[in-house]
Amino acid sequence: MKILKIYGWAFLAVAILGAFIFLPTFFLPGRDVDLPVYSKTTAREIAKNLKEKGIVRFAFPFRLLSKLTHADRKLKAGLYRLNPRMSLWEVLTTLSEGKSELLALKVPEGFITDQIAQELEKMKVMPVVEFMKIAQDTRLLKSLGIQGPTVEGFLFPETYRVPVGADAQALLELMVRQFFDSVGDDFEDRCRQRGLTPYQAVILASIVEKEAQRADERPMIAGVMYNRIHQKIRLEVNATLNYVLENKRAWLTNDQINIQSPYNTYQHRGLPPTPICNPGLASIQAVLDP
Known about the structure:
- There is one protein chain.
- Helix content is about 50%, strand content about 5%.
- The chain is built from 14 helices and 4 strands.
- It starts with a helix and ends with a helix.
- The relative contact order is 0.11.
- The longest helix has 21 residues, at about 1-20.
- Residues about 5-20 have low confidence and may be disordered.
């Protein structure tokens, strides 16, 4: 009789645990929420965000389940669409494995913002104008620590999981946060040691990204750019002018070199006013350690 009682309590505990894991967290309908996950985001941080956004009732069960299933080691950067009616198990498997409706947005090193917007439209995630509008929202950019007029340079090259109809601001914030997570907390200090502001360092890294043909060329190109800046010599880089030219060429014509533009480094000394692409981590490291 005593054994039956123990088994009864054990069965009840398993049933409660199973219901907690596999039944919907909330039974009433709720709106979809796009949750950003960064490559360095911990399960603890995700659990906190899930609770704040009303996807789960308590943070601890998510952390525990992700630890027991090792799902915390499988989390991939992306914008995940979740709903309060999802079970804890559905939330966890969505974040660790993704769903079929999540698309892979590949952002290569050297892509410009417009190319990313074009790719998003091609994937039917969102229109070009929607992403470009948010990419030029100076109030939002300032809140993210970007001093320039656009987000150019800070959309970190990575493969992101995104849903169709993703929120443009949430996606942009995800990519910018990925940038700052990747460059590290000492990024600003390392820039200052080189006599640059973080924004200037990103501009220089974008030039290195566009000019380098091979990985081992990056530090050398960065060193050449530093020397020209310190000696107040014009950079004379084709890539800066190609950023604003419709007819882009590896070798510019005389007419193109004479075009009046702040991006024309054949005519103007110093750096162009903004980054000319979104550089990868290798180009940023080359600027910080030429």
